[in-house]
Amino acid sequence: MPTSTNRRHFIFQLTSLSAALAGGAALSGCGGGDDEQVDFLYGVASGDPQADRVILWTHARFADSSDTVYLRWQVAEDASFKSIVSAGTVAASAASGHTAKVDATGLAAGRSYYYRFLADQARSPVGLTRTLPGSTSELKLAIMSCANYPAGFFNVYADVARSDAEFAVHLGDYLYEYEATGYASAGAAALGRSSVPSHELLTLDDYRRRHAQYKSDADSKALHARMPMIAVWDDHEIANDAYVDGAENHSPDSEGAWTARKAAALQAYHEWMPIRTGSDSSRIYRSFDFGNLVSLHMLDTRLAGRERQVGITELAGLAGPAAQAAAAAAFSSPTRQLLGSAQLAWLSDRMAASTATWQVLGQQVLMARMEFPVSVLAALNSSDTSPEALAAGSAAVTAYLTAKATPAALRSPEQVALMNPQFNPRLGYNLDAWDGYVAARETVLGTALALGKKLVSLAGDTHNAWHSDLTLIGLANPALAGVKVGEEFATSSVSSPGLEGYLALPSAQVKGIFEGVVDDLKWLDPAQRGWLKMTFTATEAKGEWVFVDTIASTDFRASVGHTAVYAPGSVT
Questions:
Q1: Are residues 480 and 555 in the same domain?
Q2: 0.85 cut: is pTM over it?
Q3: What span, in angstroms and rounded, lies between the C-alpha atoms of 177 and 197?
Q4: d(CA 496, CA 182)
Q5: For residue 354, what are the domain limits?
Q6: Are residues 437 and 343 in the same domain?
Q7: Using CB atoms within 10 A of its CB, is residue 326 exposed (0-12), middle (13-18) or buried (19+)?
Q8: What is the number of helices (H) and of strands (E) in the chain?
Q9: Could you read off the pLDDT of 478-537 as tens digits, one per residue?
Q10: Which residues, 6 or more positions from 231, have their beta carbon under 8 angstroms from its beta carbon?
Q11: In the chain, helix, strand, coil percent, each to 5?
């Protein structure tokens, strides 16, 4: 006697064949005559659009069994599905965590489409997606990162869903791996947003359950149903501060092999995200061409080639001379990798071949030079919040900014020393970012300069909003030191806390310190949650930083807090 699953599959195939012979008439069911309830608890999503196709995603499961659910999917020009342009079948089985993805093909460029999934009498919510344009004069992207479920509500997602953005771009930290009492969880219980499972994620089942929790969020479902998403992972989809061979938040002695944990995390990511999965699931760097206006190159700065991070304490000499020497050797290596040689070659080839006006890097961490003099870094110790430490930090900042503002001919000997990089070298404050991989950054920026490309970097990761110049240090050619190659627009977080949670200083003071000390930084917001709306035309790239006034309640207001325009005549 056939099993229930086999019976459903047989009737599903028979019904599908009958519909095909009838010229594609609508099917009445996909699971046979069992009439079991099928749930679409996590809505629908679409992603990785191309000019003629897009990935469609859902999760489907019988209410009372774990049997495979056989689904039909439809793409239509209208919300009533009277004009279906693409259709097919797909299975949601236990092997994929009951998720289902299809690559809907045969679509027209630059068009909006409605889509849905069906099983017996059950229907998924209807989603709205769109394909990449063949040509366009304007592009609107919604840039997001760092959505931490226990930290607060995803009001940012709700705001993006009701915006006029055409495509969502998620730069990583779509979820966090910590236990329920871990990072940014102080208010989770009161908000009804405690993490599931309650322990730190290690296994495939763990990562699947956490993805399911995030996808159950009403605002997440609304965003995914509203527009296609182009996404890459950062570190927390696996573990904090991940690199090729490990992570800060992974201990092989107590948590097992890194390779096993990484494989589980990546499998769950591909199951639960509307991303086009190739033969190598660890490779997610890829490009999207929006006509001849924008080539969006989505990068992997975590797992493809990143060498282990160098500690700022060691590099600044605060952990002794031996540790400093070892850190300096790794930091200054001309072969130090962030992207890895294969991804770097791919990016160079893609930029060279692109005819688009803008080359846009969609990636995780800050690319701009966020350099502080060692005198300031040593004094701004975020772990020491005593009055004496705060006073020392303030004095160090004041001394440096005063020296910087004083004409060179009028500086005192102490001020001359403060401004001399031999005595007071400048280091990036966050060596997990491109500041910790200087040679790799110089290669990417140098390539864009040599190709004469208009370059924009999009970044997330820090939970703060930034706008900066992208300049060369001049490693290969000292004559190019300080030459501007492009600009970086970095988004704040969906819900994760920013600098206001790390530095025991008023936000206005933090803003003043960073904007005063960091030469390439144009603007910073160190305290608000939000998203970044990027609008590209042939002549300019405009960033609008949108902030929500709360993540502690779903009753919120959103407003544009800052606008910046990059309009280069040419890259020189």
A1: yes
A2: yes
A3: 10
A4: 12
A5: 133-370+429-572
A6: yes
A7: middle
A8: 15, 27
A9: 999 999 999 999 999 999 999 988 887 899 999 999 999 999 999 999 999 999 999 999
A10: 47, 169, 170, 171, 172, 174, 273, 274, 275
A11: 30, 25, 45
